[in-house]
Every structure is written in C-alpha cells, then in structure tokens.
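Notes from the 1:1 (GR / supervisor)

We went over the backlog. Supervisor wanted to see one worked example end to end before approving the batch request, so GR pasted a single chain during the call. The sequence is below; no edits were made to it. Supervisor asked that the structure be written out right there so they could see what the output format looks like.
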Amino acid sequence: MRPPRQFTTRPETRTAQALHYVHPLHGAVVPGIEPSSTFARDENYDPMGAQVYARSGNPTLAHAEAVLADLDGAAEAMIFTSGMSATVAVMETLRAGDHVVAPRIMYHGGAVWLQRMEAVRGIEVTFYDAGVPDALAAAIRPGQTRMVWVETPTNPNWQITDIAAAADVAHSAGARLIVDATVSPACTTRALDLGADLVFQSATKYLNGHSDITGGGLSVATVDPWWEEIRDVRTLQGTAMAAFEAWLLIRGLRTLHLRFDRASASALALAAHFEGHPALRGVLYPGLANHPGHAIAARQMTGGFGGMLSILASSEGAARKIASHTQVMLPATSLGGVETLIEHRMAVEPPGSAVAPELLRISVGIEAVEDLIADLEQAIERAQ
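Structure output shown during the call:
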C-alpha cells in the first residue's frame, strides 16, 4: 500500500488531481463516468449509496461537486445544467415583499430574471452602480433586504467591489451576500473567506474552460434550511448536471489554475500594450494601475487579475469592424475558454442596456500572446 501523506496539499494540487483520485479497484487516475439514471436498493430496500434517481444527482456529479467545494473552501457545492438554472434556483427562494440589491451592469440573464420576479412574484429590486462608492450601501434597506448580489469584476466593464466590505454591509442589514465569481474563481478570489454566504459561478466558463458544456455552480459557506431549499428547487426542476457533462467539468477543473494563470498574464500584456492606443478610447482591465478598482482588486484577486478585458473603440461602427476583422480571436459569445474570443457586447445585450455601444469584450485564452497582440493591431488598422 502507498504510505499516507504526511502534509497538507495546496488547492491547486488537490484540484489538479481531482482530490487525489485513484479508483479503489483498478487504480485508474482519471475519474470514470456513471451514466445510470436510477440506482438499485439493497435487501432491506434501503438505498445502496447517496443517489436514488439521477434527477437529484449522480456519482460523477457528486465528485465534481466535491472538487468545487474544496476549491472554494465551501461546506458544500451544487452544480446545475446551466448558470441560469443555478441563478433561478437561488432566486426561487425569495418571497413576495423581499428586497434584492444587484449591480446595474451584471449578467443580463440574471438581471432579466430579477425583473421578471419583480413583475410576477412581487419582490422588489434595486439596481446600484458598482462604480460609485457607497452606492451598494445606499441601496440596502435594513430589515427588508434579503439578498445582496455582487458581481466582481462586473461584466463587461470590470468594475471591482470590495467583497469583505459588501459582506459587512449586507450582514448588518440582515441580508445574505451572493458573489458572482464567474470571472474570478477561487484560484484568485476566495469569496467565501472574505465573507460571502454563497458563491455563484457559470461553470461553462473558467471552471470547465473548454467551451464544450454549459453548467452553473453554487458553493455555500454554511449548510442550512436555505441551502436545502435550493437543493429541493434543483430536484424539482430537474436541473442537476448529467454524468457526462460532470465528467467533462472534472476534466476542465484539473487544469483551472494553469489556464487562469496563462490567461491572466496574457490579458495584462494585452491591456498594457493597447493602453493609450491612438485608435481606441480606452482599455478596461483591473490589472492596470490606473483602473479605479485596482487597489481593491490587487488585495482580493491574489492569483491574478483574470483573462477578461474590454476595449473601447472610437465608435460603435468601428467596434463592429474590429470584431469582424480579427483572424486569431474568434467573434463569439462566452468566456473563460482556451481560445480567445472577441465580442461586440451591445449586439447581445437586452434593450436598455447600460453597456457602451463601442465596447468590445475580449476573453483571453492560452494562445501565444504575441499572436493576439498582432491580430488585434491588424484588425484595428483594417477597421480604420
């Protein structure tokens, strides 16, 4: 037998090894797939394991959730079929009259669902400007606010919220703090350690990192009746991730730290290169020293500033042309994959969006950064 380990490993080691996985029967070091939709009972008609029917989960999903919970430092994690299904499950726990605070610029699907809940469920929503100091605190109603939703950095303006300060404000008002950490996973931001009650992530993005599944993850600081209600919603909706997608997610998680490190370094190089470019109105990236949230980002994003940045073209027309002329960067929606994507964000935003029409969002992958710089340079030149 292999001797027991004599020391505690770091999160990147545990994630890379999928929690030191070795199959107990034949020694495989890659987790297997358990695609069964139903699970047998023993001679006493008791469940033989944790699962009974795949609508509420499966062994492969349970393994993925264990890896995610360990990564986030969570009591438990839950993984859904999409980021939206995870978002909806959280919001389904709200009651008529509850008040929610959320950033004005946030994932637009979440904003649209909050507006729907306001119209049909009778909750109240206040959207605050994440770029204005104290706007979050001013939006909270002590005793009525039940949920404070924070996205940091905000997508696609990359404004920064101080998670620890937000937790203090939310908790003092009797509210829970939910942090959307899709672009700042735990390899750089330990949101639960900073005081968040729940971390949401679109697992489609950095967690999986290969643009071949959709998924959503929730990680909770404390298992309580609220968390169990979210689990009940997932079961009733049938939105637990299936086994094959969970297996792909485990595979993606194992390289998360490497991919995020490379994307962060390349994004910083891109931002620094194009900062002050005569054909651009600006570069938005929290890793730049002149970014308004740089000091807070440097304090809470301890593993790099991430692979997401935006550039502001001279006009909306110029932005569309730049996105059409890239030859390495792919013009597509989504983020966090190994390939670099460029998107004219206004083209996919809902009506009334506050996103600037000349904004181009770039999700930096793991390609040679020299190729990315050259590609964007030629696209800007052609657009002129």
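Supervisor's comment: The chain has a mean pLDDT of 95.
Batch request approved.
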